[in-house]
Write a structure and sequence with these properties.
mainly alpha; 11 helices
Length: about 280
């Protein structure tokens, strides 16, 4: 028995114990003489229910192994590209104010990378044995918010300021359209990169009948998926149309058309294939 789940609003009311008892009764009715349990989170609950500890696993299961297999792709590679891009821009930037902004942005990137390497990953390496307890979950969220999300938000603000100054010869509407399309595209690239590296492979580990419940349990239900993934990805569509007439100087019309038709094609594939 594993993955006994109770929604947040129904916890601490005895429903978890009732589910376990029900599963045990079903097993006995079907003639099972022994029932084995796996848990990585609420060991104290099962101890209270009379379960006896047989073994502590020292390595993760398939999901944790899948996670570690992908660490290089969605931790190290983006971190290296982040630092390299700052160094390249610094090589071609002579204005003092821009260089200060770029050094500040690179320092925040290094802070985020250091937090990942020396704080987040060691905690995640212990998850197979310790489980994701509320204390560990709170600690991870705190580190992520203050040392990764906020620095990333400041980096985005610096990028907007530099880009806006660089495009000061363009009309205001042209600047706004270009920056909106640019940042939405970068955001969507990151979200779909993460989903393809982690989300899609994990679907293979989930029974089709449990798919929606699993997405709901991890906070990525259908409405959240629409707001986090789909809307930011397809929002550039209505913005690219006016960009055919209002865009920064030096950007020809054909790249705008190429991006417009590319997103339209992806939209058609999503509507016809992925959504059904």
């Amino acid at each position: 028995m594993a993955l006994v789940y109770v929604k947040n609003e129904y916890r601490n009311k005895g429903f978890g114990a009732l589910l376990c008892e029900k599963n045990q009764n079903i097993g006995k009715e079907r003639g099972l003489k022994e029932i084995f349990l796996f848990t990585s989170t609420v060991e104290s609950l099962y101890t209270r229910l009379g379960w006896q500890l047989l073994e502590r696993l020292k390595s993760g299961g398939r999901i944790m192994q899948l996670f570690h297999d992908k660490v290089l792709l969605f931790y190290y590679v983006p971190a290296i590209l982040n630092i390299m891009s700052h160094i390249l821009v610094l090589c071609f930037c002579s204005r003092f104010s821009f260089r200060v902004a770029l050094w500040s942005s690179m320092a925040m990137g290094l802070l985020s990378v250091s937090t990942t390497l020396f704080v987040i990953i060691p905690i995640q390496n212990d998850l197979p044995t310790l489980g994701l307890t509320p204390e560990i979950n709170s600690k991870l969220l705190m580190y992520a918010l203050f040392f990764q999300v906020l620095p990333a938000a400041l980096q985005v603000m610096i990028a907007i300021g530099i880009l806006n100054n660089h495009l000061k010869g363009t009309t205001l509407i042209g600047r706004l359209l270009f920056m909106a399309v640019f940042f939405l595209s970068v955001y969507s690239l990151g979200t779909f990169y993460m989903e393809s590296m982690v989300g899609y492979p994990m679907w293979l580990l989930i029974d089709p009948s449990d798919w929606l419940a699993t997405r709901e349990a991890i906070g990525l239900n259908i409405p959240a998926f629409v707001w986090v993934f789909l809307i930011p990805f397809y929002l550039p569509l209505p913005l690219l149309v006016p960009m055919l007439w209002k865009r920064p100087n030096g950007i020809p019309k054909y790249p705008v058309l190429m991006m417009l038709f590319s997103i339209l094609w992806i939209f058609m594939v999503t509507a016809v294939y992925f959504v059904p």
